[in-house]
Specification:
Layout: E1 8-15, H1 21-31, H2 49-54, E2 61-70, H3 79-91, E3 99-108, H4 116-123, E4 128-134, H5 141-152, E5 156-162, H6 169-183, E6 191-192, H7 201-211, E7 230-239, E8 243-252, E9 254-256, E10 260-263, E11 268-271, E12 274-278, E13 282-285, E14 287-289, E15 293-297, E16 311-314, E17 333-339, H8 345-358, E18 363-369, E19 373-380, H9 383-397, E20 401-403, E21 410-412, E22 415-417, E23 430-441, H10 446-450, E24 459-466, E25 469-477, H11 478-492, E26 498-508, E27 511-518, E28 521-522, E29 528-531, H12 532-549, E30 557-563, E31 566-573, H13 583-586, H14 590-609, H15 620-627
Parallel strand pairs: 1-3, 1-4, 4-5, 5-6
Antiparallel strand pairs: 2-3, 7-8, 7-16, 8-15, 9-14, 10-11, 10-16, 12-13, 12-15, 17-19, 17-20, 18-19, 21-22, 21-23, 23-25, 23-26, 24-25, 27-28, 27-29, 27-30, 30-31
C-alpha cells in the first residue's frame, strides 16, 4: 500500500428503495461530526426538494467524512456509550498517538431501478459497498441487482441489516441469514444497525475502515513525476459563476488549483478555477490527490463539452490514456417534450442542457409538432425517470412542459423507430423491446401476482424459492412494463412485492399505430403504438375523453381514432350556438330566429371554405389531463 492512500476509504451505500440508506447516511454524518447537530435534518444528503417530497433519493450524493479510530477503544456493550465515544473521538482537534485518522468518501445512491445508472457511476468511483437490507422487508429485487453489479465491479461488499429497532427478532435473524447466504459470508459478519437510533453504526464505520481496501494507483510502471494526473468524471453540475463543475475520482497523480486540464473525450482544454471536496456542500481546497473524491470547477459555459464517464487529465506527464469508465446508458422510454409557452423554446433548450449535466442518463434530440411547435424528444431509463425530469424542469428552471405519451423503440423491418408518428402503417416484421423481469414477493401474495398475467403480456414464467420469498421470473414487453406495472404490483401485494428488470433484446410484436384526428387534423402528441388486441378499447376511451375535455368551436369537430387509414372510433363535438336575444322571453317571431340561424350557417360555411375550421389548437392543459390516465 502507498502511504498517500492508506488512510482513504471510498465506498457507497446500496439498497432497495425505502430500505433506509439516507437515514443511515445521516447517522454517519452525525457520528463523524461532518455536519453540526444544529444543522442536521432528516435525509440530509437529499438536497432536492423533490427528493424530500417523494421520500426517495434521485441523485447520488458524495460526501467526505473524517473518522478518528481510537486504537485503545474498548468493546463496550452500551450502545449510547459507543456512539458518544465515537463522536468525542471525532471532535478532538488534536490527534493523539492512539488515534488513527481516516478519510471516508461516501456516495449515497438511489434505490429505484429507473436510477440504476446513477448507481453504476458511483460503483466505478469506489472500492467498497455497504449492501443494506431492511429487516422488516428482507431481500428485495433491487437488492439482488445491486449485489450483482457491485460484485461485477470487483468491490468489497459489507452486509448490513437495518431497522433493527422496529423489526421483530425473527425478521432480523431471517434477514441476516438470507443476506449472509447471498454475499457468501458467515452470519457473524453481517452487521446489525439502526439508521434511526444509531445502534451499530460505530461498528459499521470500523468495518468500513478494516474491510474496504484503500485506493491504488492505476499507473504503476512509470516514475511518479511522469504520471499524468487522471480522474474519472462520475457526475457534474452547472453553476452560473463557476461554469461546469465536474465531480471526479482521482486515480493517478495530483490536480492543483489554477493548473491546465483537458477533457479527453471532447479534447477540451480548460483551467481548474476551483478545486475542492464535498462536506457535503462544495468546500474549496488547493489540490486533489490519488484516491480522493472531489470536484473541479472548469469555468466552461458550454455543458456539451463535458461527458459523464470521461477522463480528465492534468497538463504534465506522458500517460494520457482514458480510464475505463462504465457503459453508456441506453434509453428505453421516449417522450417528446414541448414548452407550454412557445416563446420559451430557447430557455427550454438551455434548461435541458443544464439538466443533462446532473442527469447523464437523459438523452435529447430536436423534435417538432404541427400542433405544439418546436421541442425535444427525450430518452429516459423508465417512466419515473421521465416524470422526475418533467418536475425538475418546472421547479428548477420554471418551465412548464407538454409531452406526448411515453413510448418505446420498435424495430420495423430492421429499422429502429423511436417516435410513434414515424411508425408505418404497412410493414413486414415488427419487433418490440423485451425485458427479463424478476419479481420478489412473499408466498402469500403469489396468487395475486400471478393474476397480473391477465393484464400484462408475461411469457416464459417460472418461480423459485429464496428462503421466505418467492422469485417470479418472466419475459415482458417493455411497453407493458412502463404502463403501470409498478402500481399494479404494489396494489396486489399490499406493497410487499418488488421487481427488477433488464433489457434482453427484441421479439416479434403484433402491434399497430393508433392516430387521433380532431377536425381531420392528426394530433402527433396523441399517437401511440399499441397491441392490436387492445387498440379498439383504447380508441374508444381516448375519443370519449377528448370529447369531455375539448372546448366547443364555431364549427362541428369530429374526433376520430384511425388505424391504418380506417376509422375505428368516433365522437362529435357539436358547434357552438349563439344566444338569439330574448326571443324565448318576449315571444319573438320564429322567422327572425331562422334568419339569424341561417346567417350563422353561412358564416360557418365561409370558415370552412377558408380552411379555418380545420385549424385546431389543442390547449396544453388538455394534453396534461389526457395523459393522466
Amino acid at each position: 500500500m502507498n502511504q498517500l492512500t492508506d488512510n482513504i476509504r471510498n465506498f457507497v451505500i446500496i439498497a432497495h428503495i425505502d430500505h433506509g440508506k439516507s437515514t443511515l447516511a445521516d447517522r454517519l454524518l452525525e457520528i463523524t461530526g461532518t455536519v453540526e447537530k444544529r444543522a442536521m435534518q432528516p435525509q440530509y444528503l437529499d438536497q432536492m426538494e423533490l427528493e424530500r417530497e417523494r421520500g426517495i433519493t434521485i441523485k447520488m450524493a458524495p460526501v467526505r467524512m473524517v473518522y478518528k479510530v481510537r486504537n485503545d477503544r474498548t468493546d463496550g456493550n452500551d450502545r449510547d456509550e459507543q456512539i458518544d465515544q465515537a463522536k468525542r473521538s471525532n471532535k478532538r482537534s488534536d490527534q493523539t498517538s492512539n488515534d488513527s485518522e481516516y478519510i471516508l468518501n461516501l456516495i449515497d445512491t438511489p434505490g429505484h431501478s429507473d436510477f440504476a445508472y446513477e448507481v453504476s457511476r458511483a460503483l466505478a468511483a469506489v472500492e467498497g459497498a455497504v449492501l443494506l437490507v431492511d429487516a422488516t422487508q428482507g431481500i428485495q429485487a433491487q437488492t439482488l441487482a445491486n449485489f450483482e453489479n457491485a460484485k461485477k465491479a470487483g468491490l468489497k461488499i459489507i452486509g448490513a441489516v437495518n431497522k433493527i429497532d422496529v423489526a421483530e427478532s425473527d425478521q432480523i435473524e431471517n434477514s441476516i441469514m438470507d443476506l449472509a447466504e447471498l454475499i457468501g459470508v458467515p452470519t457473524e459478519e453481517i452487521l446489525r444497525v439502526s439508521g434511526k437510533t444509531g445502534e451499530g453504526v460505530p461498528e459499521l464505520l470500523e468495518a468500513v475502515v478494516k474491510k474496504i481496501p484503500p485506493p491504488t494507483f492505476k499507473v504503476t510502471n512509470l516514475p511518479s513525476n511522469q504520471v499524468t494526473a487522471r480522474a474519472l468524471i462520475f457526475d457534474s453540475m452547472y453553476d452560473e459563476h463557476k461554469g461546469v463543475v465536474a465531480y471526479i475520482r482521482v486515480f493517478d497523480g495530483e490536480f492543483n488549483i489554477n493548473e491546465d486540464i483537458e477533457l479527453l473525450a471532447t479534447k477540451t482544454k480548460a483551467k481548474a478555477k476551483e478545486i475542492g471536496t464535498f462536506s457535503p456542500q462544495l468546500k474549496p481546497g488547493q489540490s486533489l490527490k490519488t484516491g480522493e473524491i472531489g470536484y473541479i470547477a472548469t469555468g466552461l459555459k458550454d455543458p456539451g463539452k463535458l461527458k459523464i464517464g470521461d477522463t480528465i487529465c492534468g497538463s504534465s506527464g506522458s500517460a494520457r490514456t482514458p480510464l475505463p469508465g462504465y457503459t453508456e446508458p441506453k434509453p428505453v422510454v421516449f417522450v417528446s417534450f414541448y414548452p407550454e409557452e412557445s416563446d420559451q423554446y430557447d430557455e427550454f433548450k438551455q434548461a435541458l442542457a443544464k439538466l443533462r449535466l446532473t442527469d447523464a442518463s437523459l438523452t435529447i434530440e430536436p423534435d417538432s409538432s404541427e400542433v405544439l411547435g418546436r421541442g425535444f424528444k427525450g430518452g429516459f431509463l423508465g417512466r419515473l425517470h421521465f416524470e422526475i425530469a418533467a418536475e425538475r424542469l418546472a421547479r428548477e428552471f420554471k418551465i412548464e412542459t407538454v409531452h406526448s405519451f411515453p413510448s418505446v423503440a420498435y424495430k420495423i423491418d430492421g429499422n429502429i423507430i423511436t417516435n410513434p408518428k414515424d411508425f408505418p402503417n404497412d410493414y413486414n416484421i415488427a419487433e418490440e423491446p423485451m425485458t427479463k423481469i424478476e419479481i420478489v414477493t412473499p408466498p402469500r401474495f403469489l396468487g395475486s401476482v400471478m393474476q397480473l398475467q391477465e393484464i400484462f403480456r408475461f411469457s416464459d414464467l417460472t418461480t423459485e424459492t429464496l428462503k421466505n420469498k418467492i422469485i417470479v421470473k418472466a419475459k415482458l414487453p417493455l411497453a407493458d412494463l412502463i404502463r403501470d406495472l409498478d402500481d399494479k404490483l404494489k396494489s396486489v401485494s399490499q406493497g410487499f412485492a418488488s421487481f427488477y428488470y433488464e433489457l434482453i433484446g427484441f421479439a416479434p410484436a403484433d402491434v399497430a399505430k393508433l392516430e387521433i384526428h380532431v377536425a381531420e387534423n392528426p394530433i402527433p402528441g396523441l399517437t401511440r403504438i399499441l397491441p392490436k388486441k387492445d387498440i379498439d378499447r383504447e380508441a374508444r376511451v381516448t375519443c370519449e375523453k377528448l370529447k369531455e375535455l375539448l372546448p366547443k368551436q364555431q364549427f362541428t369537430q369530429a374526433i376520430q381514432a384511425v388505424v391504418g387509414g380506417r376509422i375505428i372510433a368516433r365522437e362529435t363535438i357539436p358547434a357552438m350556438k349563439k344566444l338569439l336575444g330574448n326571443f324565448g322571453k318576449t315571444g319573438g317571431d320564429r322567422t327572425r330566429k331562422m334568419k339569424l340561424w341561417k346567417k350563422q350557417q353561412r358564416g360557418k360555411e365561409r370558415l370552412q371554405e377558408r380552411g379555418e375550421s380545420n385549424q385546431i389548437k389543442i390547449p396544453a392543459h388538455i394534453f396534461k389531463e389526457l395523459l393522466k390516465r
